[in-house]
């Protein structure tokens, strides 16, 4: 009589590693996470390296997660720049708007405003350098759309500085005694150059160094630009 054979024992399938899922976040939290990742990608690889795959890899999620939050790369870039540019412009306008600027104050008050304004802006930049790098530094492959947005934000700041300069240099008739537009452009340009140095080499160019140097420079300028006393003034008749 034939012996019955046992059916072969099925082999256990090798355990598959558990699939890693992105932590569950609300839609706003997810967008914020992905924008932070996009900002890191741009800082490290320029705009040319900003792809949906790069964003997903940086954030530790899959590409579909990125596409759930943004339509495409341009959508990410526009949203990122809009958020950072608006935040930066608002911070700068708040910083310079909080400075006391007496109307018709004279050259000394104008010099004090320049020093205080640039100092406040530099302190704001040192608190959030990553965001300001996107706006102030020449990032490789910056698209024309990005440059246009940055230029628009800069024009807003220049216009506000010009208003302040006009108020500080107003004569008896209420009109500015200087070329307020050109002076405002110069002040903003000086601030931008200081910001770039502070961002690229913060240890060598701390905000305190600019504060001290600007005070020395403007004090010397005011001293040498002051009208010379008339000859014979103060002599006994």
From TrEMBL:
This is TetR/AcrR family transcriptional regulator. Residues 51-70 bind DNA. Residues 1-22 have a biased composition (Basic residues). Residues 1-27 are annotated as: Disordered. Keywords: DNA-binding, Transcription, Transcription regulation. The keyword Transcription regulation applies. InterPro entries: Homeodomain-like_sf, HTH-type_TetR-like_transc_reg, HTH_TetR, Tet_transcr_reg_TetR-rel_C_sf. It comes from the Bacteria. Pfam families: TetR_N. Residues 28-88 form the HTH tetR-type domain. It comes from Paraconexibacter antarcticus.
């Amino acid at each position: 009589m034939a012996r019955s054979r046992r059916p072969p024992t099925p082999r256990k399938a090798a355990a598959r590693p558990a699939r890693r899922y992105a932590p569950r976040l609300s839609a706003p939290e997810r967008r914020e996470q992905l924008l932070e990742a996009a900002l890191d990608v741009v800082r490290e690889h320029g705009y040319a390296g900003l792809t949906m795959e790069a964003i997903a890899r940086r954030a530790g999620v899959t590409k579909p997660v990125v596409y759930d939050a943004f339509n495409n790369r341009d959508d990410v870039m526009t949203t990122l720049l809009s958020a950072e540019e608006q935040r930066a412009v608002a911070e700068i306008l708040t910083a310079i708007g909080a400075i006391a600027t007496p109307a018709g104050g004279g050259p000394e008050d104008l010099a004090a405003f320049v020093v205080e304004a640039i100092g406040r802006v530099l302190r704001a930049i040192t608190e959030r350098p990553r965001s300001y790098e996107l706006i102030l530094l020449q990032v490789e492959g910056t698209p024309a759309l990005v440059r246009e947005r940055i230029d628009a934000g800069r024009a807003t700041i220049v216009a506000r500085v010009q208003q302040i300069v006009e108020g500080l240099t107003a004569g008896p008739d209420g009109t500015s005694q200087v070329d307020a537009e050109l002076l405002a452009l110069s002040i903003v340009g000086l601030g931008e150059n200081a910001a770039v140095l502070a961002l690229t080499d913060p240890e060598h160019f701390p905000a305190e160094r600019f504060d001290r140097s600007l005070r020395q420079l403007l004090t010397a300028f005011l001293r040498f630009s002051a009208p010379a006393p008339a000859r014979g003034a103060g002599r006994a008749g």
